[in-house]
Design goal:
globular
Length: about 140
């Protein structure tokens, strides 16, 4: 709403941050997953991989990190493949999240802060202990390399 009606109040972020987590929806294990809802934010994600090699990844706007296309009557933005080092992680993940830094009108933010922009499930649940090195997030799937 601010972007359309109050463009003067918006500063476009330069990138988004991506991470993996266990939501539980894909595996049906919502008891041990974060089971997020529409009011959830980054603090509600407690199942992000805990290995020391794992790090969230970044995709920059206005670069080849994003491809915008019109397909089957819908506009889409695709994020380039992101590599996650999961060599020392051993939990299950079945979802990913995208963070954007902004100052929310609906919270007590005093300055721009990371907020969940969206989450989505992966094509299946992945046990990271079965991945010896890198997991590539591409098109809602983890590609094992």
């Amino acid at each position: 709403m601010d972007l359309v009606f109050r463009g003067d109040t918006i500063t476009k972020p330069s990138n988004v941050t991506l991470g993996l987590f266990h939501d539980g929806e894909v595996s049906g294990d919502t008891t041990n997953g974060d089971d997020l809802n529409d009011s959830s934010d980054i603090g509600d994600i407690t199942t992000e991989p805990s290995g020391s090699a794992y790090a969230r990844q970044s995709a920059s706007f206005d670069t080849t990190d994003f491809t915008v296309l019109y397909e089957s009557g819908n506009w889409q933005a695709e994020i380039a493949t992101q590599d996650f080092d999961v060599s020392d992680s051993d939990q299950e993940v079945d979802a990913y999240f995208v963070l954007v830094e902004f100052q929310a009108d609906t919270t007590s933010d005093g300055s721009p802060t990371d907020h969940l922009f969206w989450t989505d499930t992966l094509d299946k649940a992945y046990n990271l202990s079965n991945i010896s090195d890198t997991a590539k997030l591409a098109d809602g799937s983890l590609i094992i390399t």
